[in-house]
From TrEMBL:
SUPFAM superfamilies: Domain of the SRP/SRP receptor G-proteins (SSF47364), P-loop containing nucleoside triphosphate hydrolases (SSF52540). InterPro entries: AAA+_ATPase, P-loop_NTPase, Signal_recog_particl_SRP54_hlx, SR_rcpt_FtsY, SRP/SRP_N, SRP54_GTPase_dom, SRP54_N_sf. Residues 1-127 are annotated as: Disordered. This is Signal recognition particle receptor FtsY. Residues 29-40 have a biased composition (Acidic residues). GTP binds at residues 259-266, 342-346, 406-409. Residues 9-21 have a biased composition (Basic and acidic residues). Residues 73-83, 108-120 have a biased composition (Low complexity). Involved in targeting and insertion of nascent membrane proteins into the cytoplasmic membrane. Acts as a receptor for the complex formed by the signal recognition particle (SRP) and the ribosome-nascent chain (RNC). GO terms for cellular component: cytoplasm; plasma membrane. Residues 427-440 form the SRP54-type proteins GTP-binding domain. It is a peripheral membrane protein. It comes from Euhalothece natronophila Z-M001.
């Protein structure tokens, strides 16, 4: 049976989460037990370890052996040291100069060893399994793909997380949260492009909580996670739209993919097509970006990778709306469930291109009035507030219903997700954290908050 990523359940109600944390406590233990068995299997046996220790103890490294020989030859016992050498201190001076002139050893500790790499991977696996278990998943329900994806997401938000947590620890220490620490949090949030409105809300909520009780660092971070989830989930509640975002089966779903050039729009379409195929939907792509050179060839290449047919007009500078019309006709005749429409990348100040986007929407409304229509804006997370301004302009013309946040692989701008949710009241539907075809998944506010704020 195909694993349906689209219909994977995310973000249970908060009350359910708390119950599941206690009820599913056995699940994480089973996962951890499995990991401990794997770790035990990979670690050397006590006999082997003893042999290695004896070998290490009895066989000095070449450097240590050389140093021992030099010590033996150049440092005789104090009773045998000539008086002139003791008085002049020449040996000590030679030692000092030799140490000073010797280049510093390469920082071997900065390059992870194989053991450290395995340890890091084990920690990431344990963290991923715990996050899934906290959402009510049992070990039998957890797939390797989910574990791999959460690792990728955590790494993608790593820069933002480390900057935030390290500076917060330096400010707060081990004591309770105070006003100075809250001001530091405000600065850190703004640096991460959380935006003024979301930052103000977080700071005010923290201050209100502080009036009720003292918040140690761990409790403060846990409470911050709750606030982050609340902000990210509010657009779903206010728009009365389900958090689980999936095409309706046995019906035509048309997703209009918009955004500026360079945001990852065409790449996102290829990844969505791949995700749809893996989730057992019939998919089709409309290459309606007819203005940019090689755009049609690019989307065709992604269509080949995703094993998805692409509808395109062979001519140059053809009418994008005509391509969409042809694609809808083909989708209707073939019983396609998901039609992904690639549109021209445009800047929000290009009036003629924005009007063309409106024309495409009119064709969709007229040609497929019964279809489920979604308009998704692709935003490059590394753009920060510039991406937010793009979203504001597209909202008016494209009647946006959601956002796809891309390029969260190493960006320090992960906080823009909160700005989008708070200022534009738009739900984030998908999130990308890598260049591979597998590196795009449905958005989960719980997983995002954990990846953003967990150590």
């Amino acid at each position: 049976m195909v694993f349906n990523w689209f219909r994977r359940q995310f973000n249970d109600q908060q009350e359910k989460k708390e119950e599941q944390k206690s009820q599913s406590s056995a699940s994480p233990e089973e996962v951890e037990a499995t990991e401990e068995e794997e770790t035990t299997a990979s670690e050397p046996t006590p006999v082997e370890a003893t042999k290695e220790e004896e070998t290490t103890a009895n066989e000095p490294t070449p450097v240590e052996a050389t140093e021992e020989e030099e010590t033996t030859t150049s440092e005789p016992t104090p009773t045998g040291t000539p008086a002139w050498l003791q008085q002049s201190g020449g040996l000590e001076k030679l030692k000092e100069s030799a140490i000073d002139d010797t280049p510093e050893p390469e920082p071997v500790t900065e390059t992870p060893t194989s053991e450290e790499t395995v340890t890091t991977q084990d920690e990431e696996t344990t963290w991923s399994a715990q996050v899934l278990a906290n959402q009510g998943r049992t070990p039998e329900e957890i797939s390797e793909e989910e574990i791999s994806w959460l690792k990728q997401l955590r790494r993608g938000l790593g820069k933002t997380r480390r900057n935030f947590l390290n500076q917060l620890k330096a400010t707060v220490g081990k004591g309770p949260l105070n006003e100075e620490a809250v001001m530091e949090i405000e600065a850190l949030l703004l640096q991460a492009d959380v935006g003024i409105e979301a930052t103000d809300y977080i700071v005010e909520t923290l201050q209100a909580k502080m009036r009720e009780e003292a918040l140690p660092l761990e409790s403060a971070i846990a409470y911050l996670k709750e606030i982050v989830r609340e902000i990210l989930e509010r657009p779903f509640q206010e728009k009365n739209t389900p958090i689980t975002f999936a095409p309706e089966q046995d019906k035509l779903n048309i997703w209009l993919i918009t955004g500026v050039n360079g945001a990852g729009k065409t790449t996102t379409i290829g990844k969505l097509a791949h995700l749809g195929q893996k989730s057992d939907y019939t998919c089709l792509i409309a290459a309606a970006d007819t203005f940019r050179a090689a755009a049609v060839e690019q989307v065709k290449a992604w269509g080949d990778r995703a094993n998805t047919e692409v509808v395109a007009n062979p001519g140059k500078n053809t009418d994008p709306a005509a391509v969409v019309y042809d694609a809808i006709s083909k989708a209707q005749s073939k019983g396609t469930e998901l039609l992904l429409v690639d549109t021209a990348g445009r800047l929000q100040n290009k009036k003629n291109l924005m009007e063309e986007l409106g024309k495409i929407r009119k064709v969709i409304d007229k040609k497929a009035p019964d279809a489920n229509i979604e308009s998704l804006l692709v935003i490059d997370a590394s753009l920060g507030q510039n991406g937010l301004r793009q979203a504001e302009a597209f909202t008016e013309v494209a009647r946006l219903s959601g956002v796809v946040l891309t390029k969260l692989d190493g960006s320090s701008k992960g906080g823009v997700a909160l700005a989008i949710s708070k200022q534009l009241n738009l739900p984030i539907r998908f999130i990308g954290a890598g260049e591979g075809i597998e590196d795009l998944r449905p958005f989960s506010s719980y997983e995002f908050a954990e990846a953003l704020l967990s150590e």
